[in-house]
Amino acid sequence: LAKEQGAEVKRFSKGMTTIAREKLVLESDLRKGLERGEFFLEYQPKMSVETGGILGMEALVRWNHPLRGPVPPGEFIPLAEESGLIVPLGEWVLHEACRQNKAWQDKGYDPLCMSINLSIRQFRQPRLAEQIGHMLDTIGLDPQYVELEITESMTVDKDAAFEQLKRFKQLGVHISIDDFGTGYSSLHYLKNMPIDRLKIDRSFVSEVMSGESDAAIVSTIASMAHHLKLKVTAEGVENEEQLAFLRTQRCHEAQGFLFSRPVPADRFEDLFLRQKKL
Ligand code: C2E
Ligand code: CA
Ligand code: CA
Ligand code: CA
Question: How far apart, in whole angstroms, are the C-alpha atoms of residue 95 and residue 116?
Fold first, then answer.
């Protein structure tokens, strides 16, 4: 029987596409990478549209693969999601981002709000809020300096999402809907969900000066957010024209290459925190 199974495995691997094999390798590398500490975070500033001052930052995970070099999150996040590795990886991201935020506060910099991306598998863990609460206690970070970013797709199961978001609110962290406008979401749910902010997806922001319909979409999302008393962030702001347009739409916050690409912690500190203290 063992022999037969061996033959079966062989036939299977022979038939496997290169892509599938690549995926398996990358997945096992991901697991090892997590153990070996190959991941780190970069931070991108969130700026006030009105004053141009810094309001906070978003933590973005990076993987420095020992052989391949940097692997973009667009490649390894879906894989981590598929394999379930996103749960320990996401836990590490949460802890590292909060630890860093607290370390900056301890250095005497003005406290800022750290945005952290959640993946759907993480979001579905019923004990996530409890774990985050415990982690914040241990680190000593005030929950008001944490914002969790979820996507519209996570609110499809609306009762479960509602319960989870309520637990987050009780904890005292902020909640934003990332990539807003690209996914499924009912305005009715939106009205009832305990959220604080919409982040308008980059795809709309990048075309506001060229596509009339994108300008209309941004403008509509912004005005809807105002009516629902939600804050608005525009992502992917790359030039002054886009920023000027966002100002006319009374967007609160902007993020994008116009201000800075995501940068490692020490660089972020030099560029955005040091001068504020002096
Ligand atoms: P996202 O959450 O929508 O993050 C914004 C992405 O847009 C980042 O890509 C950022 O580098 C990029 N970006 C920011 N400003 C600009 C701009 O002005 N122009 C352009 N062209 N791009 C800009 P990144 O870092 O490659 O991340 C891609 C996605 O991977 C993120 O999209 C997020 O969905 C996911 N991701 C990143 N870090 C984490 C994490 O820690 N956990 C989870 N679950 N997902 C993460
Ligand atoms: Ca995000
Ligand atoms: Ca986004
Ligand atoms: Ca996006």
Answer: 10
Q: Rounded to the nearest whole angstrom, what is the distance from the C-alpha of residue 236 to the centroid of ligand 3?
A: 8
User: Ligand 1 pocket test: which of 30, 179, 202 has the largest number of ligand atoms within 8 Å of its C-beta?
Assistant: 202
Please indicate whether residue 256, judged by its CB atom, sits closer than 6 Å to ligand 1.
yes
CB proximity list for 269: less than 8 A, separation 6 or greater = 104, 109
70 close to ligand 1 (CB < 6 Angstrom)? no
Distance (Å, whole) CA 147 – CA 265: 18
Identify the residue whose C-alpha is closest to ligand 1 atom 15.
Answer: 256
Cβ count within 10 A of residue 82: 12
As a whole number, mean pLDDT of residues 118-127 equals 95
For the segment 177-189, what is each residue's pLDDT rounded down to a tens digit? 999 988 877 777 7
Check residues 232 and 153 and name the one with the higher pLDDT. 232
Buried b (16+ CB within 10 A) or exposed e, 185-222: beeebbeebebebbbbbbebbbbbeeeeebbebbbebb
